[in-house]
Amino acid sequence: LTFDAIFVPDALRDAVSDRAWVQAMLDAERALAVAEARAGVIPEGSAAAIADACRVERFDVEGIVAAGRAVANPAEPLVRALRETVGGTAADHVHWGATSQDVVDTAAMLVARRAATVVLDELAGVAEGCAALAARYRATPLAGRTLLQHAVPTTFGLKAAGWLVAVLESGRRLSELRSRRLAAQLGGAAGTLAWLGDRGPQVLRAYAEELELAEPELPWHANRVRIAELGAALDVAAGVLAKIALDVALLSQSEVGEVAERSAGGSSTMPQKQNPVGSTVASACARLAHAHASVLLAGLPQEHERGVGGWQSEWTALSGALALTGGAAAAMREVVAGLEVDAGRMRRNLEATGGGILAERVTRLLAERIGRREAHALVAAASIRAAEAGRPLRDELLADPRVDLGPEELEEVFEPTGYLGSAETFVDRALELYRRTTEEGG
Amino acid sequence: LTFDAIFVPDALRDAVSDRAWVQAMLDAERALAVAEARAGVIPEGSAAAIADACRVERFDVEGIVAAGRAVANPAEPLVRALRETVGGTAADHVHWGATSQDVVDTAAMLVARRAATVVLDELAGVAEGCAALAARYRATPLAGRTLLQHAVPTTFGLKAAGWLVAVLESGRRLSELRSRRLAAQLGGAAGTLAWLGDRGPQVLRAYAEELELAEPELPWHANRVRIAELGAALDVAAGVLAKIALDVALLSQSEVGEVAERSAGGSSTMPQKQNPVGSTVASACARLAHAHASVLLAGLPQEHERGVGGWQSEWTALSGALALTGGAAAAMREVVAGLEVDAGRMRRNLEATGGGILAERVTRLLAERIGRREAHALVAAASIRAAEAGRPLRDELLADPRVDLGPEELEEVFEPTGYLGSAETFVDRALELYRRTTEEGG
Amino acid sequence: LTFDAIFVPDALRDAVSDRAWVQAMLDAERALAVAEARAGVIPEGSAAAIADACRVERFDVEGIVAAGRAVANPAEPLVRALRETVGGTAADHVHWGATSQDVVDTAAMLVARRAATVVLDELAGVAEGCAALAARYRATPLAGRTLLQHAVPTTFGLKAAGWLVAVLESGRRLSELRSRRLAAQLGGAAGTLAWLGDRGPQVLRAYAEELELAEPELPWHANRVRIAELGAALDVAAGVLAKIALDVALLSQSEVGEVAERSAGGSSTMPQKQNPVGSTVASACARLAHAHASVLLAGLPQEHERGVGGWQSEWTALSGALALTGGAAAAMREVVAGLEVDAGRMRRNLEATGGGILAERVTRLLAERIGRREAHALVAAASIRAAEAGRPLRDELLADPRVDLGPEELEEVFEPTGYLGSAETFVDRALELYRRTTEEGG
Amino acid sequence: LTFDAIFVPDALRDAVSDRAWVQAMLDAERALAVAEARAGVIPEGSAAAIADACRVERFDVEGIVAAGRAVANPAEPLVRALRETVGGTAADHVHWGATSQDVVDTAAMLVARRAATVVLDELAGVAEGCAALAARYRATPLAGRTLLQHAVPTTFGLKAAGWLVAVLESGRRLSELRSRRLAAQLGGAAGTLAWLGDRGPQVLRAYAEELELAEPELPWHANRVRIAELGAALDVAAGVLAKIALDVALLSQSEVGEVAERSAGGSSTMPQKQNPVGSTVASACARLAHAHASVLLAGLPQEHERGVGGWQSEWTALSGALALTGGAAAAMREVVAGLEVDAGRMRRNLEATGGGILAERVTRLLAERIGRREAHALVAAASIRAAEAGRPLRDELLADPRVDLGPEELEEVFEPTGYLGSAETFVDRALELYRRTTEEGG
Asked: From its phi and psi, is residue C87 left (phi > 0), alpha (psi between -120 and 50) or beta?
């Protein structure tokens, strides 16, 4: 990533670094040795020696990766280095019965678990912030906007509740994948575990247990559904965060001014600027996360028992999808937690169209008296006259003899808080879902 | 779709046609009227009149869609036409309290349900075919291939079992979304159901029940997670089908010849050609399905309470993802069901490298005698000499004094069926999963 | 396309229809026969009979495409039907020496030429509209906005000039590809033209001339650069149109109100709504066009002499990219031509931040007196106080003793038209480019 | 990039590193100061002091980028650091009249120029290798393959010539963009250069000259066509390289064995493996490059005078597209330069189908005697019988009384080198294009 420190928090950059991947590969080698010793396939002593060696600080990560260019994967040089580090007869038991992909795929699962945990924590923070906004501004009216035009009033709490539900939904899926679909990979050269004779399944089970990963029905060398699902779930989460970022940026516009990021960013040249920088970072992250995820989704068709290019493209794409979704989540967590909400401005914006935002309501009222179609036509015409003349819709209606509503009645009709429908009920439903979700999660 | 009859079966083209969408929109209008009558919001008589009118054959689908250009959606002209068809006072109760997006989004869910049912049926057919292949060729050896090179032997049953598990996994997700995540949409102008006063939630529940769709926590106008998840699940399924297609096309190559599509396609000029046309169609469909799905995934960030462009791009993208995934599935169902498998050719290909495919096995055996690293080096050097001289690896090894294996021993070592590891066990595991899945599904 | 009449004008839907493709394939067959007769490869009489038969109205387009499913391409059944239509000995000379891909690829070029001509015409219309806006509003000030925040003043003419230049740039590339890169395809079964003996190059040249397409260096069966470049150029054009659409939608917001689409669309429920429907349609088209183009870009790696799936995915993707880019252009042409511009509202919005938008200017002025950094800090602090107090920045500055500017001086500083820099010069440069471009094009 | 040393050569990783970007930003600042001094806008002394300071080794790159998180761009902290480094009154003249985007966009152009130069050099190397193969194997026959089936013979020279032309085409476009479309960016806060009064255009011209970048018609803050075009050109180049990689991997298959990468990679467990590692690396790079490029293409619609997220996503995407396309090119340069071609195996594979690959030719010959349709039917039936019986097509034909060809005639018909059509002519045309292109380039 260019300028990655702008986009991704340190914890996530570390979690998907080459060093983290190499440590995860060593974790896989260690677990394999332990499992094989448990199954009586290699001596206990070898397993102990191997386990002892499997610490990243004992390896030249950079050199190993560079050596990987000659074989198009980092596992082969790592295995060589590990054998050297282990030494003695135990060296021969390193990587016993495994193939490079076993180690890299299992490492991918471990990296995904660690990074997804950070992502989910950030998402939980975003959800918490949205829930707080939903509760606090449950009844605070602002303009509902469709196709970027004022539609009818809604509440800021309902807006935040909408964000909340989307965050919970995307988090639920990612969490489900993390607990149920991250699986150990062990198939040997082509997925039969032939090297292990008839002990394959036994070793596979012990290996998965040792890693606390799911035991797959089959080695999944050539079945990349797990990886693609992970990409999709991250993409959805990133997209949800970008939706919140988009709303925040739109609400922060100079002409709207209903919210502001607490840590709004300055400009190198314009002293008055208060840029929505967190939302900007999140939006950029989400675009990149989408691209990385699309590599994983497009990568499903891989050749026979191991792909030529498709498999190898997953490493960066998976790291990128994890780090960038996490980057978006971290940025939005801060944005949502510190969002400055200007209820007064919301109110003024609601009123700025001279009652236009309540045209539906007045139509509904008139419909009872003069029929729906005539009412719609009347209000539409009055809206156009009002807009052209720069006058309030209210005044246009008062001037129309067909509208037999007195000024007080009209006053009431044009009060936005009287036309919020089920907004508050919906907020409560979202908060109830949040409570259930956090309880389950806890 | 250009030449859509080549790619998508009639049933799916119908299921996502404009006509099907308009009928689904009418289904939504009908359900709304019925639900509102049940809730006492509109008269029973109006609901009956509306329900009666909601049949697509009473509408000029083409004209309605064309009129939609002026408002960027097809619901507004449909509602006008429906009001005209209904007539009388009931006309005013058409679309009562709803907005265009309510109708189109609900229609999208109905279209998705109907089309996904076809897709899942086709996927079930693919799974059935894979399961049959896995069972029949459980122990039939062929070359396992990694990076398109012979690796070690595997069985064709295990290969098919790998396809099977991937199909089941992708079908499971799509099926789950179909039963749990397809939800009614009803929010009114901006998601508050203000028009319905305090009856919003009651109407929403009845409406969802009437449609047999899930009742959402909140209207999801601006939360497109459902749509994106659907896109992702279809993309994964399409990718899995493309993986099978890729393997079939590779195995069908003139130089490999291990399988052939029963309905292999001829050429306009070359009489001998037997093209893997089903796999070709599936691969093309999957590429297009991926593109359509990516529109849905990229479309998550929509503005405020309704998007400007993002929402409107979903209709084609959803239809496309459904139809094309289904097209891929239909093609592969036929391919897998009629796959001609040439076990003799598989055997000959296994032997074509003069034992090279068992280099790992011989290394393992020698390792016990001369140590792993020396064994690896010895066999690697012999492999290179064998390849260069065009001689069997076996002969190179026999000529090496360090290899104290007799001809019979070597004969046994180079018998591929003796080095299949857990292939058959894994096949059984996949078939067991298939049995469980179909029982649950039934 | 679902609801295609909403998105794509009739002319473009026709230009990429199955019927148009089949006619283009027939055009290729006709040109081939004529070229071969000219080269003495087939009899003149055969060529005449074939040419006569090559009219789409003589064929059952639907039936031919449906028959294409069995061979994964529409050319083989078309050739059969054409032979039947031609009859006699001439029938044997149909498709002489050609392969299916020759016909389909050449048809793709013809379809692309016809559809790109429509797209370029629509783009020219958009450019014309932008040029008119640039000229008319050359000096009309409005807020320049960065990260959706007021930055410094600019002019609406310069904004439109920016759109204009982007449209011209994207049109130039598409036009260049149309004139120089659309090439005839003729290679025979695998690109050697073996069937034609030593007359291959001669026939190829005549064939290209007959079609008024470029003669390629080599048959390009497996070199899809042309197709990918076309996809990329369409994607860029669609993206440029979406940029204009985005600006129009943002400027049309209820709170901004600086422009409105003349044919703004109504709502099924809200009488006051004036939706930016043209921009909405364009944005949706551009998203879909991007997806179609990405299929073409991702499709470059095709196997050997003809792809398995990659090639076949191009037909829909190319049609889609052409039709949808054209749909976006048609929508924006209308939007730009009929854009209602409210200069008064632009002025009011400029003033709405109480001079904040001129903070840079006042900083520049103060910098000369008290140094740049102190000036920046002073104005930044005053801006924050102004924003918090809801007071004009001007008043905050007047109250600061370090600011030795009198009210008149400040008045002048805060006049936006005094701080437009080179806006008008830049408009002139863009209009000059437009003049040059249209002269060259004419 | 995860494991970036596997995929991208050092030179390219350096060329797109944060350090390279920061140096490029400093180059922009230096050029701005020099240009402004030349235009009399700032004192010569200030320009000299600034120019002196603009060396990356004087800055804490990591710290600057980290500080960029607060403002969502790296320019603002760099400008602060540069002012501090310059000190004195000259500090105030740093970044005079510019905005962050001016500096970052100009840096993007400089980074693109430097990296594209490396990419083009690698592409030139690939072209050179392809040209050598085309010349050397101009007449060496191998099977032409369509849909992965033997079609008719072609030559390996023509295959390489096809690669060559595609490489030249994609290189031509990238080279054209590098020389003509990389443009300086200078617009000030919102594209008007207001800070510079009436000297804007003069400074812009001098600035562009100083950087040897094109002078744009307008500042292009919000017109991202340049960036998108660059992305598209890199994507096309990457796709072309992936096409070559795909062909090499397919030709390297154990069952095909017609080529081998000289530096074929070993396996951690299978001593006999000779993996096409260069092609694998190139394929993985191309998939990732495509994703990065798609971010640039999807990023065209940016808000008003500077985007919220779209702009910021370009930095990584541009770096990635450059580095990964270069990575693919570097890998394929080595592959093509060292490709081991086995003409004997090509010949044996041609013969392996018992003459099937010449079915078209024999049909053509028989057509002259018994009519085309009967000939096609006869040969098709014989082909099927031959395939089923595992007998040569030749023998089936000899056994058919309708085939009045003697054994010698048939012998001749089935000689592949007699049915190569214009293959060698086409090779010459491609080599001629190569000569012209390199002469122009030189």
From this structure: left
- Whether A187 and A193 have beta carbons less than 8 Å apart is answered as yes
Question: Model's pTM, two decimal places?
Answer: 0.97
Listed residue (D170, A17, D151) closest to C181, CA to CA: D170
Per the CB < 8 A criterion, the answer to whether D346 and D335 are in contact is no
Question: Quick one: pLDDT band at residue D269, thresholds 50, 70, 90?
Answer: low
Instruction: State yes or no: pLDDT of D220 exceeds 60.
Output: yes
Closest-CA residue in chain D for A22? D3
Taking Cα atoms as reference points, which of D45, D98, D246 lies closest to residue D162?
D246
Q: Inter-chain contact C218–D147, Cβ cutoff 8 Å?
A: no
pLDDT band of A268, cuts 50, 70, 90: low
Closest CA to A162 of A433, A435, A418: A433
Give pLDDT tens digits for D363-374: 989 988 888 888
% of chain D beyond a pLDDT of 90: 84
Give the gap in angstroms from C-alpha D361 to the nearest C-alpha of chain B.
9
CA distance D101 to D108: 10
Judge whether B306 counts as a catalytic residue.
yes
Question: Least CA distance to B160: which residue of chain A?
Answer: A304
Helix (H, G, I), strand (E, B) or coil at A406: coil
Q: At what angle do helices A75-86 and A44-53 cross, to 10 degrees?
A: 110
* Counts for chain D of helices (H) and strands (E), in that order: 18, 4
Of C99, C147, C300, nearest to D239 by CB-CB distance is C300
Largest CA distance in chain C: 102
Helix (H) or strand (E) holding B141: strand B141-146
Task: Record the tokens describing residue C437, joined without a space.
Answer: 């471009």
C residues 93-112 closer than 8 Å to B (CB): 95, 98-100
What is the tally of helices (H) and strands (E) in chain C? Answer: 19, 4
Mean pLDDT of C388-415: 87
CA angle C394, C399, C404 (to 5 degrees): 85
Q: How far is B25 from chain C (nearest CA, A)?
A: 13
Q: Check residue B237 and give its pLDDT.
A: 98
Distance between CA B263 and CA B305 in Å, rounded?
51
Beta strands per DSSP E along A127-253: 141-146, 149-155
Q: Provide the token pair at B203.
A: 């109407």
Q: Which of C278, C363, C311, C196 is nearest to C9 (CA)?
A: C278
Using an 8 Å Cβ cutoff, are A245 and A279 in contact? yes
Mutation for testing the D interface, residue in A234, A288, A322, A334 having most D CBs under 10 Å: A288
Q: How far apart are CA A63 and CA A76, in angstroms?
A: 12
3-state DSSP assignment of residue B432: helix
Using CB atoms, which residue from A189, A223, A303 is nearest to B152? A189
DSSP state of A309: S
Best to test chain A binding among C272, C357, C388 (most A CBs inside 10 Å): C272
Calculate the average pLDDT of chain C. 95
Contacts of B255 in chain D (CB under 8 A): 253, 255-256, 349, 352
pLDDT, tens only, D338-379 = 999 999 999 999 999 888 899 999 998 998 888 888 888 899
How many contacts (CB atoms, under 8 Å) link B and C?
228
Note whether B310 contacts C: Cβ–Cβ < 8 A: yes
- HEC profile for B68-122? HCCCCCCHHHHHHHHHHHHCCHHHHHCCCCCCHHHHHHHHHHHHHHHHHHHHHHH
B164, B127 contact by CB (below 8 A): yes
Q: What is the dihedral of CA C337, C340, C344, C347, to 10 degrees?
A: -60
Rounded Cα distance between A78 and D37, Å, is 56
